[in-house]
Design a protein that fits this description.
Blueprint: E1 4-8, E2 14-16, E3 28-33, E4 38-48, E5 51-55, E6 59-63, E7 67-72, E8 85-88, E9 93-94, E10 96-102, E11 105-110, E12 119-122, E13 126-130, H1 137-149, E14 155-159, E15 164-172, E16 176-181, E17 184-189, E18 193-197, E19 212-217, E20 222-231, E21 234-238, E22 244-248, E23 252-258, E24 262-264, E25 272-275, E26 286-287, E27 296-298, E28 301-303, E29 306-310, E30 313-318, E31 323-332, E32 341-348, E33 351-355, E34 359-360, E35 366-367, E36 371-372, E37 378-385, E38 394-404
Parallel strand pairs: 2-20
Antiparallel strand pairs: 1-22, 3-4, 3-7, 4-5, 5-6, 7-23, 8-9, 8-13, 10-11, 11-12, 13-18, 14-15, 14-18, 15-16, 16-17, 19-20, 19-23, 20-21, 21-22, 24-38, 25-30, 26-29, 27-28, 29-38, 30-37, 31-35, 31-36, 31-38, 32-33, 32-34, 32-37
């Protein structure tokens, strides 16, 4: 049976509720729950009607709302120079090869199992196409940053020689990309193009709320889904606009579950963000990417969700009273190339609740102990300078999550 076949795919991949039926015994997973328990070496035996069944020493059925993450016994591929990517306005990332754009629909082929049906995505949901990912980390980070920071109002072609052409994208086939600039129609050989950023003012930045599942595929894609069902060896993944794909279970590397009892911190708007430059360079707070706008990555592992910031930066969030704990994994991003020296601090109601030792770009990721929030009014995350001033202080708060009291479930999760 083919590893992947697309059933319906006319929109961005997304995540939400979850329903899974009997699993195959050979699927070995590690389950993390809202109580802080990590159960490794578990056989995934069932996933149906909002419950998940795992076999370790005993057979145990859990309510899905208790689960934070399911890690399968495999790792996703890392991005490599020359890869082709499609970046969605939603934040989803497909490791696929763009083929054509016709009638405002992008057609693309999967990196793995190229014999499988092509994927079709509405162009209005696409943020950027990368035809040739730079091999050098510094060039890669610059490209990701350019996507976010260059002026809006036009589409931008990034050429392999470093030039940029602004205009209005019109058409793409397997040989050429057409761009209107002023009164001229430019027809550019695709072999000369590294990437295309589409005008952010015209993209549909649909924001998913409520129950969803952040799915990481073994090819390095990560997508948000509203529902998953497991049938024998196949997983049917559903997305917000009604589209579905069916993949082999072996094509899934991880599932991060958000819903009734767990909310990504990035769902919340901060009440205050401050940055104190060591010299004069200002640095932003970035959602679901590192401070250079590239993927959040710690010692070779990518984290699709979290916050990227630079020393010395603090961000404060208002708490509504239903939060029980804060969870996160912290470290200095891989784009620091082993440099950087920072201290991570968690502050609850103006009281330091947790402070790390000095952390560099060579130290393994640190899963911070759960920080109690019951009854608290504010949560502040602070990154301070280390001994090396602010050189390459690219600090990540990965999988930053609020654990919610189920007695006070937010309305959007009901």
């Amino acid at each position: 049976m083919a590893e992947m076949r697309v059933v319906i795919a006319l929109a961005a991949l997304w995540v939400g509720g979850l329903t899974i039926t009997p699993a195959v015994a050979e699927e070995i997973v590690t389950a993390a729950d809202i109580f802080g328990e990590h159960s490794s070496g578990q056989q995934l035996k069932g996933w149906a009607d909002g419950k998940i069944t795992l076999r370790g020493k005993t057979l145990r059925t859990r309510n899905l709302d208790e689960i934070l993450a399911i890690q399968f016994d495999r790792k996703p591929d890392s991005l490599s120079g020359g890869d082709s990517l499609v970046l969605m306005a939603s934040g989803d990332r497909y490791v696929i090869s763009p083929i054509t754009v016709s009638n405002d629909v992008l057609t693309a082929a999967w990196k793995r199992n190229t014999a499988q049906p092509e994927l079709k995505l509405p162009l209005e949901s696409v943020a950027a196409l990368i035809f040739d990912l730079p091999a050098a980390m510094i060039d890669r980070q610059r490209l990701f940053a350019d996507f976010q920071t260059l002026p809006h109002g036009s589409d931008i072609l990034f050429l392999a020689n470093g030039d940029k052409i602004m205009g209005d994208f019109k058409h793409m086939d397997q040989a050429f990309i057409e761009l209107v600039r002023g009164s001229a129609l430019l027809k550019i050989d695709r072999s000369q193009v590294r990437a295309l950023r589409l005008n952010p003012d015209l993209t549909n930045r649909f924001k998913m709320e409520g129950r969803r599942i952040l799915v990481t595929l073994v090819d390095g894609s990560h997508v948000i889904a509203t529902n998953i069902e497991l049938h024998d060896r196949e997983m049917e993944i559903s997305f917000p606009l009604g589209q579905q794909i069916i993949v082999q279970a072996s094509f899934v590397a991880a599932c991060q579950v958000y819903g009734q009892n767990a909310i990504p911190l990035t769902d919340r708007e901060p009440t205050d963000v401050t940055h104190e430059s060591y010299l004069s360079t200002p640095w932003p707070l970035v959602r679901n990417a590192n401070v250079n706008y590239g993927p959040l990555a710690l010692r070779g592992k990518e984290y699709p969700a979290g916050l990227g910031m630079h020393s010395r930066t603090s961000v404060t969030y208002h708490l509504s009273g239903d939060e029980l704990e804060f969870r996160a994994t912290v470290g200095v991003d891989d784009c620091s190339n082993g440099l950087g020296s920072v201290r991570f601090v968690v502050i609850v109601d103006d009281r330091r609740a947790w402070t790390s030792d000095e952390i560099t770009g060579q130290i393994a990721p640190i899963e911070i102990p759960p920080v109690p929030l019951r009854g608290a009014k504010s949560l502040t995350l602070f990154v301070d300078f280390g001994q090396m001033a602010d050189v390459s202080d690219y600090a990540n708060w990965c999988d930053a999550t609020l654990i919610i009291d189920p007695k006070h479930t937010p309305q959007q999760f009901k």
